[in-house]
Amino acid sequence: MAFFLTLAYIALSIDASGLVRYLAFVVLKKGGKVGHILFFYLYAFFFALGSFIGNDPIILSGTAFLAYMTRVSSNIVHPRAWIHSQFAIANIASAILVSSNPTNLVLAGAFSIRFIDYTANMIVPVIITAIVLFPFLLYIVFADEMLIPLEITMHELSDAQKAKPAVNPNIPHARGKLEEQEDSSGTTDQAKSLPLEEIMNPFLDKGGAAFGAIIMAATLVTVLALNASSQAGQERPIFYVTLPAAFVMFVWDVGFGWVHRNETREIARKGREEIQEAREERAAREEQARKAGLEQYQEGAPDPSNPYGTPSSAPNIHERPSTPMVFISEPSNMSTLAKPALVTKGWVQVFAYGWDHWVTKTGIVGSIGGMGFLSVVLCNFAGTNIGTTILLSRVIQAWAEIRNSSDVAISDRMFWGTVYSMALGVNYGAFSTAFSASLAGLLWRDILSRKHIRVLSREFAKVNLPIIAMAMTVGCVVLIGEIYIMRHDGPYSL
């Protein structure tokens, strides 16, 4: 866990430097106004970047970028195609490296898989999935010019807006009253000018981005090299590499913030003052409108909401509106509690016996297809994809113990086919039928809601079902071919 947290800090620090948004802006300029080309460029960009830094930075910056881009386009009716494709490809890309997703880290630790071996087995199914999925998304799932127009019409920045310095979105209230206007009304021209500036004039801390990219690249190369060269029983904790790297990145961030503290505080102070002024002006307008309505009622004019003018419609200025009381319980980590309970009560062994019967009947193809299906389904019910990885890893370990106790060996093809199909399922399962299938899904929904884009649970499942079906089918088929080519029928070994 220390390995993932420290590496995640480096990735998020790179994201805070504005590098992801700036690169997305470069891709946007490269793609131009041709809708299909721009869709391809963004798809390839999110896949390439997500392969190295994981899905979280892509979700954090890429989702907001797409929300802004689709808002300032005059002929993209709904952002559905762009945001769902981005969410799917970010989670697909995170299956390549162990460092890209905590589920990969859990799986690699459970079966003592070297990082380089994990990537070598996963990279081909993942890349082919991404290649096949693109035309499926473009020409079948989102084959509508209202979603992906042939030509995208974007609003343009004025000369004054182009001359303004880029705003650092990490500074609280840096956007001032425009931030308040965006929250209150997301459809006016003035509100649209804010996201347009975010896209066409993005903030970039060049020093922080370059330094973070160097730290991340050096860390990943060192981790992969040490892990590949380590012998069995002589592995060193990986956080011996990532922790110093994260500390160096932290020192850089603190130093940069300290050097620019006066400028940052001034920007935040002005922003707070502008927001306060905007709120006071809005409150004054609302109060004036309320008084005008009260005077109209007192003069005997009929109330539009009560054309008969009955006294019951008169507003009572002395009565405070009732506020509904909402009880919010603290979330309990039920998935964490459930895993030991399933072990101590014997359910893991029951599942393992069931799995043993399944693979005995269906063979290698059934083990890959069955585990892929199970892992995707359980992501929606077993405490996100992390909980699913823990549970299914226990089941596979118990299955191996059952076979060992009965002196029936598991073939190399069947065992590793099962393990790597689970790796596909727990990564791809994030974009299945429920937001709670992954923490990234909950984060994605929260970011979109802040940008006034509501994605209902039913819509999320409806859009993702054909995508996850195609992605898992392609991934498992390629994995079957890879297993038959690269593996043997002899007993497996860790």
UniProtKB/TrEMBL annotation:
Q: Where in the cell is it found?
A: Cell membrane
Entry GO terms, CC = plasma membrane
The reply to whether Transmembrane helix figures as a keyword in the UniProt entry is yes
Q: Supply the alphabetized keyword list.
A: Cell membrane, Membrane, Transmembrane, Transmembrane helix, Transport
Q: How does it sit in the membrane?
A: Multi-pass membrane protein
Chain ranges passing through the membrane: 40-69, 118-142, 208-226, 238-259, 373-399, 419-444, 465-486
Matching entries from InterPro entries are given as: Cit_transptr-like_dom (IPR004680)
User: Could you tell me which residue ranges the Citrate transporter-like domain spans?
Assistant: 3-250
Q: Where is this region: Disordered?
A: 166-192, 278-322
According to its UniProt entry, one GO biological process term is: transmembrane transport
Where along the chain is composition biased (Basic and acidic residues)? 278-293
Q: Which Pfam families match?
A: CitMHS (PF03600)
Q: What is the protein's name according to its record?
A: Citrate transporter-like domain-containing protein
Q: Which organism is it from?
A: Eutypa lata (strain UCR-EL1)
